[in-house]
Amino acid sequence: MIEPHERFFSEGQGYFGPSESPATETHCNVWDWDQLRWIKVKGTAKLFPPGEDVETSVLAQFADYLSPEVRSITVNDDGLLTGVSTDPEEDDTLFIGYIPLSLCQSLTDCPTIYFSQLQELDRLGPGVDLSSYDGHRVAFKFNPLGMPRRLQMSWKEMNLLSKLPPHPNIIPFDRIVLEDVESRVIGFTTKYIPGGTLAEAKPKRPFRFEWLRQLTQLVDFLNLDMGIVHQDIAPRNLLVDPETDKIILFDFDWAANGQDGLMDGRDDVSGVVFTLYEIITNDTYFTSIPHWERNKDMVQTTEWTCHCELDSDVSRFREFLNEWVASRADGATEQDPNPPKRLTWPDLPTPPDYNVPFELGMTEEGEPVWRTGVRSRRIALEKGQYCFRWERPPQRRLKKAENSM
């Protein structure tokens, strides 16, 4: 089940007047990762001051009880519900022009499965479900948001994972997921590995020295052989496969392929250093520091107080880590500029749907202004364009229904 603190996020506050005036009408679009829909929260600047995200906690009180047709709610200055609206004009959901598989040449050799063939078993986190088909359990990763950066990240991750050679420490790619009407690519599945991440399971199992060795070898393989930087190595993105007892790295949506997508302060060597420190000390302070403000010397030069069970002395872990960091210090901290096995794939195709013109406002002479490109779902539906709908009931309702059967 999606953790409560991960369930909602807000686009921010929109003010119809000065934000410093408590009476100014305020609209806030809030995304619900559980129900996969936007809901507009309306009130005043007194309740919704700039930058405080009060709207997420306000919506959390009512979200599970709202009809699927509700597009906005209105609350008073005490956060109490005073009205709901099903008016489609209140819906600011962006249209996502998912790419037909026929236009995705880099993915045409991948095995596929239709969305209707997946049975939802659980909601593991934002944009990740535990699903099953033909008796197999898989993690289904999808992008229901029309933000260009998220679409690019999703395209990159499915291409990268589907093209990486099989590796005992990388999550195995499974299938491309297609929606049923027009065979558009909406996500992908990977093998599901039970037991939780190292962030969730670290108090429950001893951390093995061999896992550190496997992680450093994996990072060398990705950086030096493949030219790939994961850029988000952390306990939350590491599993241990109970079938092989090997550490598994997943979640490649931040990965850089060569210079494409490379960011300062997110090199994998530093990621391993901070990951091992967090696992051994159970200190999560450094996860709150932006990557560009962190430096591995912050923890490498300090004493590590062990707060987890290890299969070797802390000194053995630290000595191995320091030797590995030193071996990567001269010219190969991030990746080889000319790796022997560089992966390639084309840019994300432009959805043909965005070439359909739509009216957006009027000229001074009263003539309609025509635009192409990104549009709202409401406009796309008015133009007769096909829209895949992600909305679904709250998981809490589904579980109650299952328990009552």
From TrEMBL:
Enzyme class: transferase
Region annotation (Disordered) ranges: 1-23, 328-348
Keywords: Chromosome, Telomere
EC code(s) of this entry: 2.7.11.1
Annotated ranges, domain Protein kinase: 115-405
Catalytic activity: L-seryl-[protein] + ATP = O-phospho-L-seryl-[protein] + ADP + H(+); L-threonyl-[protein] + ATP = O-phospho-L-threonyl-[protein] + ADP + H(+)
InterPro entries registered for this protein in UniProt: Kinase-like_dom_sf (IPR011009), Prot_kinase_dom (IPR000719), Tyr_kinase_AS (IPR008266)
Molecular function GO terms recorded: ATP binding; protein serine/threonine kinase activity
Localization per Swiss-Prot or TrEMBL: Chromosome, Telomere
GO cellular component, one term: chromosome, telomeric region
Summary of the function given for this chain in its UniProt record: Component of the EKC/KEOPS complex that is required for the formation of a threonylcarbamoyl group on adenosine at position 37 (t(6)A37) in tRNAs that read codons beginning with adenine. The complex is probably involved in the transfer of the threonylcarbamoyl moiety of threonylcarbamoyl-AMP (TC-AMP) to the N6 group of A37. BUD32 has ATPase activity in the context of the EKC/KEOPS complex and likely plays a supporting role to the catalytic subunit KAE1. The EKC/KEOPS complex also promotes both telomere uncapping and telomere elongation.
Assembly mode: Component of the EKC/KEOPS complex composed of at least BUD32, CGI121, GON7, KAE1 and PCC1; the whole complex dimerizes.
Name listed for the protein in its UniProt record: EKC/KEOPS complex subunit BUD32
Source taxonomy: Eukaryota, Fungi, Dikarya, Ascomycota, Pezizomycotina
